[in-house]
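=== Given protein ===
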Amino acid sequence: MISVSIMATMLGAAGLGAPQDALSLWELSPMVPGGAMCRAMKSGDAVDTQLVRNKEGKLLLVAGHPDWDHKAGPIHVTISLDGGPPVSLEGYVIGPTVLVLIKDDTLTAQLKAAHEVAWTLPWGHFTAAVDGLGKALDAIAYCPA
């Protein structure tokens, strides 16, 4: 796996003498060794955040935590960006992960600029720091399974 700091430099995200770039807070990974970067992940205390693109290029926003263990199925999700108004979305839970397809380009643009995402899930409220989400999303591509 390519180190995040090397990847950030390759993407032009960090210059000489520049402070740590927000992209370097995200772990980028390919589907196969040597392949295109397909996933971005940022670990957090309360919730981990992952970014994936679907074949139409839309954002699949994923929240997860190793302590979560829920049956698979559709769920109602609410997110709030940087303390803003709640946004009601439909998601799908699989064990320790919640997947939410972001269909609205305006919401995607707001997520790309966000510093914090507050999740309201059927089992609780969780907040994730997402600085650099926009750069991380721009750095990944859709990769078929």
